[in-house]
Amino acid sequence: MYQAGIVGLPGVGKTSLFNLLTRAGVQIEKYQRQTHIGVARVPDPRLDKLGELVRPRKVTPATFEYVDIAGGLEGQMRDAQVRAHLRNVNVLNHVVRAFPDPDSPDPVSTIHPARDIDALEVEMMLADLETISRRLERLQKDLKKMKSPELEGELHLLARLKEKLEKEIPLREVELREEEKKIIRGFMFLSEKPILYVLNVDEAELPRIGQVAALYALEARQQRPQAAVTGVCARIESELAELEPSELDEFLQNLGLREPALHRILRETYRLLGLISFFTTSDEEVRASTVRRDSSAQKAAGAVHSEMERGFIRAEVVRFDDFVKAGSFAAARDKGLLRVEGKEYRVQDGDVIHFRFAV
Ligand SMILES: Nc1nc2c(ncn2[C@@H]2O[C@H](COP(=O)(O)OP(=O)(O)O)[C@@H](O)[C@H]2O)c(=O)[nH]1
Ligand SMILES: [Mg+2]
Fold first, then answer.
1. What does the pLDDT read at residue 235?
2. Closest CA to 272 of 97, 34, 89, 49
3. Exposed (0-12), middle (13-18) or buried (19+): which is 212, by Cβ within 10 Å?
């Protein structure tokens, strides 16, 4: 399962966002010092449509795990505990305060997202610099004892990354070759992770939520590699998570919203990470799964079940639109809308797939 780490300064709305995404219902209290882990169900209208057509016993959405990192440690990215929590996350959600907060040590007037973003970015880059410096020292010692082209290669790469960090360029913006990515994978650098800035705005700003980047002068940020900007009013929108579907539409309309925040945030996250969804169907279960764009059919089978990947024989594929047109897998086959693909087939967003596999 893909995982996101929710980070940001104290009191900016991290736990409120966590509640919104996972429906965990964590009590919001000031200065709460607990880390929470929960799972979001990824909304996808296509899955709902397939459920209506197939009428299986269960409909299973894709899931995305969220870690809400707390403590007196918030924002202190060099803290060992924080880093341990963030090691394996695929993406950071940096929550940035854009609502007036009378309790903030800052005067209300200074809603200043760019400054808060930079503050955390610097922390992450310092944490990475520490890691690199330690490793460089070690490498220099070892290389004095014996020659090793491999270690020399690592040394040169790390020296280059160090230079970038010293110029305040986060590692996610450094272009690396595949071999280089492999060399540094184990370090789990923080500034290398893709980042979604989530501006937590005042309720009154909700009708303009689609334009937050422009409203807070973050267009340049948004255009940087592996970064994206979105907005939320965590306090109000987490309350929506409690509503019945029948009440939801009216509530959204009153707030000037087109869709719930969960849709907005996960769509941005999928785009940022280059993720796609595909579907598997049977009488038993209709299910959405997540893979990186350009994943092979065999790899995708593994996202459903490891046995499907191991025993992969072939994939029978119907495009989502064709499936809806035909109404069922069998009808799609009869109409010639089904393709038989091998293990190297690149799965497309919205593919409906039957995997044939041997156990
Ligand atoms: N006005 C306003 N207050 C918010 C918003 N989101 C969170 N808060 C308040 O900010 C405080 C801290 O929220 P919390 O989610 O615990 O922040 P955390 O410390 O970053 O986890 C709480 O009192 C929330 O009610 C928001 O969108 N608007
Ligand atoms: Mg919190």
1. 93
2. 89
3. buried
Q: Given this model, what pLDDT does residue 39 score?
A: 98
Is 12 a pocket residue for ligand 1 (Cβ < 6 Å)? yes
Pocket test for ligand 1, best of 233, 235, 257 (most atoms within 8 A of CB): 235
Ligand 1 atom with least separation from CA of 68:
21
In the CATH hierarchy, which top-level class contains the domain 294-357?
alpha beta
Which residue, judged by its Cα, is nearest atom 12 of ligand 1? Answer: 11
Q: Look up the CATH number of domain 2-43+62-106+194-273.
A: 3.40.50.300
Residue 359: per-residue pLDDT: 85
For the chain, counts of helices (H) and of strands (E): 15, 12
Please tell me if the CB atom of residue 73 comes closer than 6 angstroms to any atom of ligand 1.
no
Atom of ligand 1 nearest to the CA of 202: 28
pLDDT reported for residue 71: 55
Domain assignments of the chain as residue spans, ordered by start: 2-43+62-106+194-273, 120-185, 294-357
To test the pocket of ligand 1, the residue of 6, 7, 9, 16 to mutate (highest count of ligand atoms within 8 Å of its CB) is 16
Q: Which long-range contacts (CB under 8 A, 24 or more apart) does 299-307 make?
A: 300/347, 300/353, 301/355, 301/357, 304/280, 304/355, 307/357, 307/359
pLDDT at 6: 95
- With 0.70 as the threshold, say if the pTM is over it: yes
CATH fold label, 120-185: DNA polymerase; domain 1 (1.10.150)
Q: Calculate how far, in angstroms, residue 242's C-alpha sits from the geometric centre of ligand 1.
A: 17
| pLDDT at res. 82 | 84
Output the pLDDT for position 70. 74
Residues of the chain with pLDDT under 50: 72
Predicted local confidence at residue 81, as pLDDT: 83
15 lines ligand 1 (CB under 6 A): yes
